[in-house]
Amino acid sequence: MKRATSRSKEASHERIVDAAARAIRRSGYNGTGVADIMKEAGLTHGGFYAHFDSREAMLAEAADRAGGDAVAEMQRITASMPPQQALQAMIQAYLSKEHVEAIETGCATAALCSEMPRQAPEVRRAATRRIKEMIDLVSRQSPDWGQPIAHERALVTIATMVGALALARAVDDAKLSDALRKSVLKHLAPSKN
Questions:
Q1: In Å, how far are 170, 182, 192 from 186, measured between CA atoms?
Q2: Per CATH, domain 2-188 is 1.10.357.10
Q3: pLDDT digit string (tens) for 24-37?
Q4: 154 with 135: CB under 8 angstroms?
Q5: Does pTM top 0.85 for this prediction?
Q6: What is the spatial distance between Cα 128 and Cα 132, in angstroms, rounded to a whole number?
Q7: Taking the domains of the chain in order of start, what are their residue ranges?
């Protein structure tokens, strides 16, 4: 009986974190309330503190989950490609029109970057860890991997990708959004056609 209760609590916790990870990308950290998250997870507001000590603790787990989802997607893409094509495939997927439109399930860094400086240390720590993982993943795709230049290129690549995605989502002009994506794709992942 105790094991079933523990599994049920773990399942509820996962639903809360999943709902919060979607909500922070959709509405931002400040637009994400505990009551709304609990409702989206199908739970009562009163049960929140059985899972988290604070709203910040939930946001930290949500940031970790959302960032982990992005890293896992990029790892899946790189694993499915020959090594010499992995980085280009990753950049193309990241800067795809589909990813621009997938705010709720897409890259948390692009969705939340401007809010990060005002978040609690544990939220920033979780997001930073996932950003470092993305930088490392990009660095490992470089033919110069292991050399300082590979890390520097990865920093530029990630900063450019995140900035382009954030801007492509920010504008209300579809042509400008596409132009932002396509120009960055042209420079970071030129077609071999």
A1: 20, 6, 11
A2: yes
A3: 999 999 988 999 99
A4: yes
A5: yes
A6: 6
A7: 2-188
